[in-house]
Amino acid sequence: MALPTTRTQLKTYIKRRLGEPVITVNVADDQLEERIDDALALFQDYHFEASEKVYLKHQLSYSNLVFASASTGTFTNNEIIRGQTSNTIGKVHTQTSNTRLEFVYSRTNDSATFTVGETIVGDSSNASATISTINTGDWDNQYVPISNLVMTVYRVLTVDGFAFSGRAGLFSANYQFLMNDLSWLSSGSAISYFLTRSHMEMLNDMFVGDMQLRFNRYVNKLYLDIDWRNRVKAGDWLVVEAKRILDPANYSSIWSDRFLRDYTTALVKRQWGQNLVKYEGVQMPGGVTLNGRAIYDEGNREVSQLEEQIQARFELPPEFLVM
Fold it and tell me: Which residues lie across from 58 on neighbouring strands?
């Protein structure tokens, strides 16, 4: 039969490999599902083909307010809004509808927020509305939400015109340097150009440096240790270099991977033996004696061998060397 391409086909493949329908594999469906999850977890953590390097783009979102009813009047872009109960101040980005408003907080105390049920009033438009829902955006949260499929974040890329770089597209030093020197690069030596660019990069590393970031795959939040108030603004784009797990729901060929098939089968065999250990030595009709311990030991030995194999043969080497 063909190799499995779905979770259900993998379950059937494992049972058939362990002896069904000739014999009964005494493993509950829930146990089978859990052993597949265990195998996937190890496969995704160690196997070099279970993940890929990606460049994820993300736009820092604005906070938004949803009103209990249509606002009285229309809030104008960039005006100041004030909470009548909390005394919190915000700055309007745009009113997207008569019941929804995008904004950012204008505060020195990051804990100050609007409250549900209070009324906000615009300083210049004198428009007002009562808040029913508050959704805090990335810029006000001061972190970037990350998919739970992302295992590692390497860096946040900087490009000309991007707020983190401190440069401004056509007016950046790099762009002007290239345009002024492009005419003689084709006819002269590139050595002086290379040395000058290297010197510029060294100065940039010394006085600007890369952004410091913090990320934990179980938190799903990317923290950037920067001055959010002065270096970035809502609406800016980020490009994040990361390693992301290949989701079997989108890449069905993962289910046919040889290591995943072998390791899942070994886990299920060990589970089968563990289920039968308590009946070891029981005499069955026909003179057959149950020996769950032998099945458990064989499965456990195969699991240990495969775990050593994935780290020795399929795990990528470290990407840096600490001296």
Answer: 238
Average pLDDT for residues 38-42, to the nearest whole number?
A: 96
183 in helix, strand or coil? helix
Beta strand residue intervals within 1-127, DSSP E = 51-59, 63-67, 80-83, 89-97, 100-105, 119-122
Q: What is the pTM of this model?
A: 0.78
Asked if 235 contacts 59 with a C-beta cutoff of 8 angstroms, the reply is: yes
Within this chain, do residues 167 and 291 fall inside the same structural domain, yes or no?
A: no
Q: Say whether both 56 and 154 belong to one domain.
A: yes
> Which residues on adjacent β-strands are paired with residue 97?
100
CA 298 → CA 242, 291, 292, distances in Å? 39, 11, 10
pLDDT at res. 286: 66
Contact 126, 116 (CB under 8 A): no
Q: How many domains does the chain have?
A: 3
91-105: average pLDDT: 95
